[in-house]
Design a protein that fits this description.
The chain is α+β, with helices and mostly antiparallel strands and about 90 residues long. The protein has one domain (about 20-85). About 65% of the residues lie in helices and about 15% in strands. It contains four helices and two strands. A two-stranded antiparallel ribbon has the order 1-2. A hairpin with a 2-residue loop joins β1 (about 70-75) and β2 (about 75-80). It is an enzyme of class 3 (hydrolase). It comes from Kroppenstedtia eburnea. Keywords: Cytoplasm, Exonuclease, Hydrolase, Nuclease. Its EC number is 3.1.11.6. Belongs to the XseB family.
Length: about 90
Amino acid sequence: MEKADKQKEAGLPENLSFEEAMDRLEEVVEHLESGEVPLEESIRLFEEGMKLSRYCGEKLEKMEQHVEMLVRENGEWVKKPFQSEEEME
């Protein structure tokens, strides 16, 4: 499925950047934490926050796959794919 299709299906605007999604997620969390939002609006915000959180998590996972690190092996610097601590265990 194309990126734009996934975003549209999740109810997120097309071409939403990671930074925009994080900013909106922070706004949603602030609204929810204020405790001044009616129940129905809280549920809608919660669902939006979950979509944004999932979107940001997927973006980070993709970026992590593109990151390479330099590792010194036998006195020479070699490019290796990034591995998180969880993947190394």
